[in-house]
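Reviewer 2 asked us to include a model.

Predict the structure of this chain.
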Amino acid sequence: MKYQEDSKQILELIGGKDNVNNLVHCATRLRFSLKDVSKANKAELEKLPFVLSVVNSGGQYQIVIGNAVSDYFAAIQSLAGLEGNRKAKEKQKFNINTVFEVISGAFSPLIPVMAGAGMVKALLTVLSQLGWISEASSTYAVLSAASNSIFYFLPIFLGITLANKLGGNLYVGGAIGAALMEPSFTALIGETSADFIRIPLEAVDYATTIFPIFIAIFIYQFLDKLLKKIIYKDIQLFAVPMISLLVMVPLTVMIFGPFGTIVGDGLSTAVMWLYEQSSLLSGVVLGGGMTFMVMFGLHWGFTPITLENLNSMGGDPVEGMALAAVFAQIGIAIGFYLRAKKHSKMRSLAGSTAITGLLAGVTEPIVYGIVLRYKRLIPIVAISGAIGGAILGGFGVTMNAYVFHNLFSIPVYTPHIGYFVGIAASLIAGGVLAYFFGVKEETPDFAANVPTPATEGKQDDKLFVYTPAKGNVITLSEVEDDVFSSGIAGKGVAVIPTEGEIVAPFDATIVAVFPSKHAIGLKAENGTELLIHVGLDTVNLNGKYFEAAVANGDNVKRGDLLLTFDHDKILAEGYKLTTPVIVTNPDQMNELENMKEDGAITLDSVLFEIGK
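Predicted model (structure tokens):
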């Protein structure tokens, strides 16, 4: 009760709960992100007997509490309706979506460095095959260390990211993983008489493993919560980590580690068994379906299996077949580039996204900017991927290092002949089918170069695009996502909403409500197509915290509610709510005019105008 009453005073003196964007805490401080810092009363806060100090630094309004900070944090969360990541997880039922969400949350921060390290490995392969560097040289050893470090020490990195996702101290999670790699423990590998307090112990090499640390951190999060409930707060700073390590490390090396190894080996064996039964069918399913798995975030389920196969077998056929989907998408972009009119925005979009896919293996701009925009392409990407996947599966192609699928990663696939035949089949099939069947003949940018009904007689008309949410506006170049900031996905601005509602920015027809509910496409009477994409990478939430108020085909008026979302819980999950508002067919429009590029906005604010 004391914390509740004290927390009410804190909330009042920082400007009320409506002035709080976000709240986190460290060992001694409440760290507020406030909408308006001027509303906070620092002098009165420092007079409170339980407040040690108040600091406004680094964009955070920090209130120093001391050892009881976690109790104040919980009380303020409850009072302000800011229940975050941990509370959401406690309420969430365990299901397959939970598994994918955890896997995604654990691997997402590591994917860039894993892909970069894989490309270093591919570069080393090329250099050694050309005879430009010797595998016995110290230079090779240094670069090999650079390429192997993230994978060798994967239990440490996953210990950190999993603790961040599931709950607990990030660095205790990392320390649990590090214990499996520590020389004192690895020296026991092969010892037949090893024991722990007279309990027989069989030490295993956990380098590059995945499942043991997953199981260990899953158990650790519960232990961490229990210890914080029963240990006196003044000694929690060292006592909770100390007991966690004393309990979790022995349990991991004796129980969770061996069990996790068995699970990992079992899953890998099951996948390989299916592959051996019919490599052609496996290729059809993976090559044809991977695009859709990516859309729904289900592809994360294959990452542990891929890494396990790389560790145990030296090569992974799963990604060896799934890469067909990437080249099917690139083929579609090339087909659209050849079909689109010269100097059109579609040709520019298709060309740039094809190059990005070929050179970097990043095909999200193709999927979201082209495939989902033209429904005829959905079966085409499935058919093209299935054709290539069957060929890759038939040849037994494997990926022998973790890389993004692009032209620079060719050396890590074997056999090379199967690789080239498979990706060529997907790319050509995607290109040809997209060119001839991807769009209707009358589709703008692909039809004959004649005026269309959408542009005739409306040269003087303008469409005013109002903001879909209250908040602040920024330029697209400031968005922390290359797809949006580069303008590849379309022209426009971005809004940082302060409330959880998105409304129609003009009278329109709803043309796309994404399955994950985080984005909506609209089409105005004059042909303007607009995408409102709430947050960055929020597709990974799979609809969690989002509710759509409209469906495909609905007609809406400006100001009508389109969707709602839980502003604070999405932020608490670690996602940014930066919301791009972009015209996805700017090729049919004149330049966007009178664009608002910064400052606060209300629902009566015009973001930009479009002339016809």
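The longest strand covers residues 491-497. The chain is about 50% helix and 15% strand. We have added this to the supplementary material.
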